Amino acid sequence: MADDLQPVKAALAALLDGVTRLAAEPLPLDVAGGRVLADSVTARLDVPPFDNSAMDGYALNSRDAGQWLPISQRITAGQPAKPLAPGSCARIFTGGEIPPGADCVVMQERVERDDELALFPAGIPAGDNLRRRGRDVSAGAVLLEAGQTLNAAALGHLAGQGITEVSVTRRPRVALLSTGDEVIDPGQPLAPGQIYNSNRPMLRQLIEQFGAEVVLVSRVADDLETTRRCLADAAAQADMVVSTGGVSVGEEDHVKTALTELGELDLWRLAIRPGKPLAIGRLPRPDGSSARFVGLPGNPVSGFVGAWLFLRPLVGALLGCPALAELPQLRAYADFATRTQARQHYMRVALTFTTKGITARAFRDQNSGVLSSCIQADALAVIPPHSEVRQGDEIDCLWLV
């Protein structure tokens, strides 16, 4: 590996060094879906709050099973139960409170009725078809840990405690800059030598998917002074500044120079494919703090891969969300053959799950300009440097979720 090329591990260490979680903010539960919990939540109530029936049937004391019993009361969900008269049963419906004196429920299909009498089979065990108080949650226990993403089930868990407002971490603010005079926005006519900006909508979607918000979108002309001004303006508004292009070694690639003059360049040029010219650094902000800077290559596949490898964990660190720190890793059988040189290769693959294991099928053209290889990609197959992979070999894959 060339001395000036850094591994992904070193790049991540430089990127996340000193990153702390952003401030918390209160949010109504109804609009908190997808946000990250800033503080752990302690349960206020037992769930369920009382012993209740798991089905429609009859509540009785298990000692009285195997005989005819009079029906002494009828219990629907939401109705308080009365103590069960000795030697009797209660007609009960799903969710109904178990009356004191009863210790089991028999489903209605197993019971014979004769007016206000019910015949039960013998051998009904105590606790049958009961949902015990506190089975799901006990009051005083940790309901959800800080750093948890509030998915549908988590929202339901909070609502079950009567909670209407939660403390969530503020979304990281991101400035997304596109460099290159040859790159123009869709909707405009293409002049000779120009291309449409595919990176901007792709990266915006990924950044928002990871949990951040894009607060600034801007084109940057191929001029050092303009680049310097745009980076400074972006850092004043954002926690993260992400640029595409301009980090290579060409005469019109000004991002690296402007970053070095304004702030700090922590790392440049990675031993990965795609995405070797990737800059990581910091830009000063008016309050004395720093905005994190990630300069992605201009090739769209490099931007796609770089977003998963670097933007996702950076957003996770700012949100205090451990689940975003690393992509889930799977072992799969390679349905392809390849060989690497000095750089670690992240190949776009589709996964097939079978009873015999997971198969990774690589898209035929892995060039960094072929964005179609990312559309159906489920994972990135990680091929170490100086390696040879043969058909059927086991490989590591990073699942893109």
UniProtKB/TrEMBL annotation:
This is Molybdopterin molybdenumtransferase. One of its GO terms (cellular component) is cytosol. Its cofactor is Mg(2+). Gene3D superfamilies: MoaB/Mog-like domain, MoeA, C-terminal, domain IV, Molybdopterin biosynthesis moea protein, domain 2, Molybdopterin biosynthesis moea protein, domain 3. It comes from Franzmannia pantelleriensis. One of its GO terms (biological process) is Mo-molybdopterin cofactor biosynthetic process. It is an enzyme of class 2 (transferase). Pfam families: MoCF_biosynth (PF00994), MoeA_C (PF03454), MoeA_N (PF03453). SUPFAM superfamilies: MoeA C-terminal domain-like (SSF63867), MoeA N-terminal region -like (SSF63882), Molybdenum cofactor biosynthesis proteins (SSF53218). Signal peptide: none annotated. Keywords: Magnesium, Metal-binding, Molybdenum, Molybdenum cofactor biosynthesis, Transferase. Catalyzes the insertion of molybdate into adenylated molybdopterin with the concomitant release of AMP. The keyword Acyltransferase does not apply. The keyword Kinase does not apply.
